[in-house]
Amino acid sequence: MSTTLRPFGMKPIFHPxxxxxxxxxxxxxxxxTGVTYTAPYSLTAGQSFFQYQPVGITASGQLTIxxxxxxxxxxxxxxxxVEYTTAEGRRTLGKNASKATLDAATSIVFWIFQDPSLVYxxxxxxxxxxxxIGSQYNFSAGTNQTTADGYVIGVGxxxxxxxxxxxxxxxxxxxGQVRVVGLGREVSFPSGELNNWGDTYTIVQVEIANNTFxxxxxxx
Length: 220
Known about the structure:
Elements: E1 11-14, E2 28-31, E3 41-42, E4 48-49, E5 54-57, E6 63-65, E7 77-85, E8 91-94, E9 97-98, H1 99-103, E10 106-113, E11 119-123, E12 136-137, E13 150-152, E14 159-161, E15 178-183, E16 203-208
Parallel strand pairs: 3-6
Antiparallel strand pairs: 1-11, 2-10, 4-9, 5-6, 5-7, 7-8, 7-10, 11-16, 12-15, 13-14, 15-16
C-alpha cells in the first residue's frame, strides 16, 4: 500500500487508442513561438521546468507552470524536456531547465505531452477510494507538492516534478484540473506492495479535465 507521500508529477502511462505514446518524444509535440517577445516561456526568478510537470500557456502564448486550480487557467500538457543552444553555441537537450539557464539560451524548443486523451499517473496527498472515479481534482497546494516544485539529482542531473494531487475532490458542479479515471499501477513506496484504493497516499490514473484543447466539463 502507498503509505509514504513521494509525488512524481504527472507520469504519462498510456493512450486510450492503444497506441504507445507515453515514451520519450513518441507522444510529445514541440512547442516554439515567434519573436514578439524575448522568450517562449514565462517563469519567475528561481523557478524551473521539471520532467512530468503540468504546464500551461500564458495570454501571450508563452509556456509556463500550470495553475494549481482550474479557476485560474487550463492545463496545456505535461513537460518532458527542452532543447536549446547555450551561450557557447552548444546544442543541449535536458529533462529540466531553470529560468537562469533558459535566460542564457537561444533557439529554445520545448517537448510537451499534449494529447488531450493521454492518461497519467499521479500521487494524491491523501487517501482516494474507487468512488473518486469520474470526480475532478485540482493539484496540491502543499509544501513541495505544487506544480512549481521539483528536484534535480546531483549537479547537472535530471530534474523531476513533485506535483501531487489535492487530497480532496472539487465540489459537484465545479471545474477541476484533472479527472480520476482509474487506479495507478505503480508499486508503492516503501512497502513494495501494489498500490490500492484507500491507501494513505493513493496513486491514481487521471486525464486532464481542464484542457487547453477541449471545452471544460465540470465535475458531477
